[in-house]
UniProtKB/TrEMBL annotation:
Enzymatic reactions: tRNA(Arg) + L-arginine + ATP = L-arginyl-tRNA(Arg) + AMP + diphosphate
Organism field: Halarchaeum nitratireducens
Highest taxon in the source lineage: Archaea
Family assignment from sequence similarity: Belongs to the class-I aminoacyl-tRNA synthetase family.
KW Aminoacyl-tRNA synthetase (keyword) present: yes
One Gene Ontology term of the molecular function aspect: ATP binding
UniProtKB keywords: Aminoacyl-tRNA synthetase, ATP-binding, Cytoplasm, Ligase, Nucleotide-binding, Protein biosynthesis
Descriptive protein name: Arginine--tRNA ligase
SMART domains hit by this protein: Arg_tRNA_synt_N, DALR_1
Domain DALR anticodon binding: 468-583
HAMAP family: Arg_tRNA_synth
The protein's Enzyme Commission number: 6.1.1.19
RNA sequence: GGGCACGUAGCUCAGUUCGGACAGAGCGUCUGGCUUCUAACCAGAAGCGCGGGGGUUCGAAUCCCCCCGUGCCCGCCA
């Protein structure tokens, strides 16, 4: 309802300003602070005060007088409060919110018909997913869900980097070394934990072995790269044997979050279909293409890049960015918009990619990036190759373990109404543990650096998923054994806590809209926390099922609780966090 | 050296796009609350003037300039 109200306010203010013969370019619409009855406000009077030579308060009063609230469904009254023009909503604003909130899909916006591709994670298939890059699947999955809620047709893509040097190294190492050569047992039963040992062994060998031996190995690695470039089928099969196994394990790990993908697009596919070769030829024909030291490069100084972008090595082979250009033209072909979630270390590359795409005549307005900073350990960076880092599997296991302890502690602490068996404990522990990890990451602005600390990542009491999940479980506790009334009179909701909760409920679709526009799922995380605050206050102050509650009031409160349950469940759903029915 | 990010209570973070109502939460500290729909909760107290300095403005955490600190990037790697 908030979006509808705001639209009415825009129209009303524009009309009022036109009546007064004032400019309407900036309406100064904002949400008032806590403690103000208004739901929407405007600070436009400040700006017009100078022009009119009158104090802001007087201007605000004049504007408020010029609005006829009767023309609008949700605007009850527009009044000046000091220099602000404040808008109070009609009873139907609350009544319609109470109705809309009871739909299971409350918060989902109407379909836009826009096809959006969200590429995220795309971690090189070299080994177990570690926490350093865990931000990518968590933020990426939330962005995809958010755009879905905002009404777009979303496809998620994992771009598989199976053509680079590291995969050639991996393939060589996998074929060269035996189990006996490895100096450690796999840390886990899953396949990527087994195979990563070959990758690490290979890298160590290249650093430590006799120069002659290293040269022989390098020859083999080069022949793999050349084979891929030439589209040699046997080489391709050899590399894929490693890629598919490791990727399969990584997918299982990501599924625990859960992060799922509609498409796995392989980098080699743009070599095998000739797309990269054709693209390089088009680049060669541009005015910006130059040959330096035998390599084809792009002079992108017009776009502000000092560094030239090499797109063909002196031996004629393509580079990652060359293939990624073909990849992106493929995206542009198939989708209306393309969003990529990537680490800040790829920022320069992404900028050059965009410039090159423009150079090739693409409309890059359809391309957007969500950039995040890596999660580091107190002692430094995490690395798959060196084997330093916390595995995402370990983090999730630890989170679930700590959540299980909490659930069990609470079982001992108090007598509960609901019956919880061992399966329930396990389910709740998983929902809460994984949810806590996701919320910890998705609730922060992605561009801020995070240093990983176990106790911080696994703090269930701070502003965390469990707090929001708990509010949801409480709402279920009220609704579970109760008939949800068909009729509910919103005007009976008069307590501060009730009105506040209803106001917050009304905001939800608007928050989805804003967060999706900005590609910022953390806005949903902030909202969800504030919403849980409002619900918990309501829960404390307004009994629903108590005997002395008037039946009509009870019906209204039940409807409000149903709206709250849907809002909490869907806000969590946007973030990819489960909403337990009991905790 | 250059480019890009980030710097808000003791700690972890919202707020910065689009400048406006007293700068907000959680944790921690202190106080009170479970015969009442789940106390992973609620209510209250103390605590920051937004890295530093200039500027623009009626008004700056928010915009501009300089400086300091931290991170990332500046490969014929990905």
């Amino acid at each position: 309802m908030f979006l509808a109200l705001r639209a009415e306010v825009e129209s009303a203010l524009t009309g009022a300003l036109e009546t007064l013969d004032l400019p309407t370019d900036d309406l100064g619409i904002e949400e008032p602070p806590e403690g103000v009855d208004a739901v929407v406000a405007s600070s436009v009077a400040f700006r017009l005060a100078g022009e009119l030579g009158a104090p802001p308060a007087e201007v605000a009063a004049r504007i408020a007088d010029a609005v006829d609230a009767d023309e609008y469904e949700y605007v009850r009254e527009v009044r000046a409060q000091g220099p602000y023009v404040n808008v109070l909503p009609t009873p139907s604003y609350y009544a319609d919110t109470l109705d809309a909130g009871r739909d299971d899909d409350y918060g989902e916006l109407p379909a836009t018909g826009e096809d959006v591709l969200v590429e995220h994670t795309s971690a090189n298939p070299t080994g177990p997913v570690h926490v350093g890059r865990a931000r990518n699947p968590i933020v990426g999955d939330a962005v995809a869900r958010l755009l879905d809620y905002a009404g777009h047709d979303v496809t998620t893509e994992y771009y598989v980097n199976d053509a680079g040097r590291q995969m050639a190294v991996f393939t060589w190492a996998y074929e060269t070394f035996d189990e006996d050569d490895l100096d450690s047992e796999p840390e886990r039963g899953r396949v990527e934990y087994d195979l990563v040992r070959y990758y690490r062994k290979g890298n160590a060998y290249l650093e430590e072995a006799h120069p002659d031996a290293v040269e022989a190995a390098e020859d083999e690695i080069q022949s793999i790269l050349q084979g891929l470039e030439e589209g040699d089928e046997e080489t391709y099969e050899r590399v894929q044997r490693v890629v598919d196994q490791v990727l399969g394990g990584m997918r299982e790990c990501l599924l625990r979050l859960p992060a799922e993908f509609d498409e796995f697009v392989k980098e080699t596919s743009f070599m095998r279909d000739g797309g990269t070769k054709e693209l390089a030829e088009r680049l060669q024909e541009t005015d910006e293409a130059v040959i330096e030291d035998g390599a084809w490069q792009l002079d992108l100084s017009e776009w502000g890049y000092e560094k030239k972008l090499v797109f063909l090595r002196s031996d004629g082979t393509s580079l990652y960015t060359t293939r990624d250009l073909a990849h992106h033209e493929w995206k542009f072909d198939a989708y209306d918009r393309s969003v990529t979630v990537l680490g800040e270390d790829h920022k320069l590359q992404a900028g050059q990619l965009q410039a090159a795409l423009e150079l090739l005549g693409n409309d890059t307005d359809q391309l957007e990036n969500v950039i995040y900073s890596y999660v580091n350990l107190p002692e430094g960076k995490m690395s798959t190759r060196r084997g330093t880092g916390i595995d995402l599997d370990d983090l999730l296991d630890e989170a679930i373990q700590r959540a299980r302890e909490e659930v069990e502690k609470r079982l001992d602490d108090r007598i509960r109404e609901d019956d919880i068996d061992a399966d329930d404990v396990e389910r709740i522990a998983e929902q809460v543990g994984v949810g806590a990890v996701r919320y910890d990451i998705v609730s922060k602005q992605p561009q801020k650096a995070i240093t990983f600390e176990w106790d911080e990542a696994l703090d269930f009491e701070a502003q965390s998923a469990p707090y929001i999940q708990y509010a949801h479980a409480r709402s279920c506790g009220i609704l579970d054994d109760t008939e949800t009334p068909d009729e509910a009179d919103a005007s009976l909701l008069e307590a501060d806590a009730e009105i506040e909760l209803l106001r917050e409920t009304a905001r939800f679709p608007g928050v989805v809209d804003a967060a999706a526009t900005d590609l910022e799922p953390h806005q949903i995380a902030t909202f969800a926390r504030e919403y849980a605050d409002a619900f918990n206050t309501f829960y404390r102050e307004c009994p629903v099922l108590a005997d002395d509650v008037d039946p009509a009031v009870r019906r209204a409160r039940l409807a409000l609780v149903a709206s709250a349950r849907n809002t909490l469940a869907n806000a969590l759903d946007v973030l990819g966090i489960e909403a337990p029915r009991s905790m």
